[in-house]
Amino acid sequence: MFGGESNGIVDQLERFSRDASWEQIGELSDPIFRNYLITHNYWRLSMRMAELLGRQNLVWPGFGAWASAQAGEMMRHDGMGWLALTPRFGERITALLGRGNGLIFMDIAPVFSAFLALMEPADTAAQQEHHKLAEDAPGEVPAYLQDALDLDPRSVDEHPDGQQAMIWAFSEYFLAAYAACPDARAERIYVANCFVGLQEQTRIDCMLDALLELEGINRVWRAMATPLVRLWGAGCWLQDTVGRRLGRQTDAHRRHAYRLARAALIEGRLTQVMGTQLLMSLDVGDEELDISDDVPWSSPTAAYPSHLARFDEPSAEFRARLEALLNWDRTHDTTDGSAAVDWTELSDRMNFIVDLFRTRQQDLALFTHPLSRAPADVLAEVATI
Description:
This protein is an all-alpha fold. Helices cover 63% and strands 2% of the residues. It has helices spanning 8-18, 22-26, 31-53, 60-75, 87-119, 124-136, 141-148, 164-177, 182-203, 205-212, 215-245, 252-266, 270-279, 316-326, 346-360, 376-383, and strands at residues 281-284, 287-290. A two-stranded antiparallel ribbon has the order 1-2.
């Protein structure tokens, strides 16, 4: 199962995980140890999904493992020594990220486990039925999976326990398992990954709001700087209007800078914007991505891997789900404009995530275990828990 990814900490976490239920992991009181186990169990799920769907496309638990490892670093304040000067803020980061980490895990991991239990058994008759359903009646797959996986058809907006996005996600994973064309499989996995991401990000929206909100600071700066930012914005608008009439392109950097200033000061989100620009990054594979920058291309010559360069799958159900997701993408078919201004805003996160998933879905470096190169002190820390 490990495919050569084992090391001391991975082996240790595997021993803890073998006999633990999802509930036992999610209910652990130590948020740091729980985070290590969540990261490891996301990776375990991604390896099992790779056996079902192939190892060319990373599925959501693979991305989830890297994001969980990043959250763990922030919870432990790794590389954030300045938090020693603000211990209360450090405690707040650990508590809120720990809650979010556990909430997402308990919302998503059991569904992946149930889906794998449904798809993995070597029951030839069941496999034939699934294959027939995928080929002859793909429109019936959502209702089948809603019942088989016991998913709540409401959206999270309608009810906190809603799982509508998960029904759509697992319908696409199901159909991807029987897609013969590599393009179709990659496209369906991409849409599935994004819907799981939407479920995840919607569930933790209020927690991220609380993470970077310092109301007193925001209120003071908003009162002081709003007139200046409005004046600057009027100047930018006039300059852009004149430039367009003269056939000039709008300066993207100035437009982004104004968006930053407007969100930080006029809209009163200074601490959220500054936190996004200064604190938020994501280690994925061999890269460290700055969330306040546009998502880098998947290669030096192409924004997206070839199987995701364009979406060709013609089925009406797929096109409808794809369009629903692309509504979150402010700039279709380019990573320009994917940079986040305020990570506490759902629209900013999803605008970044849809490009992150599309550019990195076929990055083989992300199939490695996020903790496989963990330093010795991490192993010692786990061993003592």
